[in-house]
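Forum: Protein Structure Q&A
Topic: Joint prediction for protein chains with partners

I've read a bunch of threads here and the consensus seems to be that you should model interacting components together rather than docking separate models afterwards. I'd like to see that in practice. Below is the full input, 508 residues plus whatever partners are listed. Could one of the regulars post the assembled result?
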Amino acid sequence: MDFQDYVSVDCVIFGYDFERLKVLLLERVMLDQATHKVIFSDKILPGSHVLNNEPIEAAAKRVLVEFTGIEDIPLHQFKTFGDLDRLSRQERDILWLKNIHQDPSQRVLTVGFYSLVDANKYKLSVTKQQTHPEMFKRNPAWYDIETIPEEMAYDHKQILYEALSYLREGVKYNPLVFELLPEKFTLGLLQKIYETILNTTFDKRNFRRKLLKMPFIVPLEEKQQKVAHKPAQLYRFDWKLYQQVKRNNHDIML
Amino acid sequence: MDFQDYVSVDCVIFGYDFERLKVLLLERVMLDQATHKVIFSDKILPGSHVLNNEPIEAAAKRVLVEFTGIEDIPLHQFKTFGDLDRLSRQERDILWLKNIHQDPSQRVLTVGFYSLVDANKYKLSVTKQQTHPEMFKRNPAWYDIETIPEEMAYDHKQILYEALSYLREGVKYNPLVFELLPEKFTLGLLQKIYETILNTTFDKRNFRRKLLKMPFIVPLEEKQQKVAHKPAQLYRFDWKLYQQVKRNNHDIML
DNA sequence: GCAAAAGTGTTGCTATTACACCCATGC
DNA sequence: GCATGGGTGTAATAGCAACACTTTTGC
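Posted by a regular:
Agreed with the consensus. Here's the joint model:
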């Protein structure tokens, strides 16, 4: 037994599809070897063991590519989960682990990461070679945050909800939303994102006043085109300026 | 090799001695077996491997008792450190690990916890049986945060500084300071603590106004006694009320 | 009586809230 | 011409920052 048998990462990828807040989950399916009937199926976070010589964040990035096709996104470590029985609280988890020849009573610590991305930007796909023909993870898909599937692997529902509250806090003090926004964006879009994530609404005029006071949100000499309404001013987020401002004044953003 | 060989916890215990902010460190000493001369000595955070059947927070509490004598304090998980070479970047770390028959190139993930306590409340002492007679940890002691020792084990200096910034953020949004304060306290003391931790000063009148508006800081029918100045009103922190208020309104405290 | 910390109010400024209408565009 | 989201100002209120003197006690 080795380091990699005891440590894993799990990724909670939040996606905004310009309508709603979503989370990326895989389907975990176990088939009967003989009949090929489904024994069970539930949802699981993209995650995997950390290889012996792999930094933990690299492991998180690797599993994302392997199980979702998402590449090159910033990941935020939020919490480590180490309950003794976190892999063996549900019957189907035990069944699953036994079948991949892992002892369900063996302890695996998992480091949780979250991210916020544009849900429309990626074609989701599993590229990882699945080692057990009748047990596999498939169908990475976005699930609305308001209707999280009941049945999830291990302690993943707990991990998901904790990530959600880290996201909601994080978004208030860190420029997380600019990690998902296109280079050029309108204030209307920005407002919609904040409203969706925080599940609230803001007054348009007050919101704009507040954001326009931030020096790192800089107007471009460019407007929207071909929209069926008054074209909006485009802005960009200046990361360098943001870093400068942040050094002096810790609490910015909403 | 087992779970416990790959996962550890480290505790960054901040102490306030009613003057300055301190941090609790142990001395790590290695002696020459023959001459008993000191080969090296540096500082190390209280930490240890997590036992196979031990929850991670329990491990953190255990090592605190074993290496410092501090019992029953709230611990806050803040970050997990997993760099591949975090145990082998310094010559003396390699020497140390070889002598306790641990492979320096072996990877150990460590989960960091921090806490804030009254530095005067505890008699510090090491009770853990030290297994290698010429290599030991001793002398738990408070070190001023402004003069952190240069020489520290592994990546412990990094862990310490990251903990410090989590503390400084945490104290603004969570009632951490009330975990260290005596049951009955004065507003003057409260202000001094915030000023020390955040390394700033506040206007007395504005500070009091702000804190007295918080319903969970409740005045007692009692004043200081036998002080060589006007005796101050005593207050207590009502944790139940705090929980209630917090449910509605997420961002409180300073 | 003096040293030491407690306690207290006001003012100007800044930030926040609440609120309603016209504008430019594509179809 | 109508539907769509963009864009704008003001007034009332609440919160924040800056400021100095009196009080009570122990010694």
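Residues 156-173 of chain A form the longest helix (18 residues).
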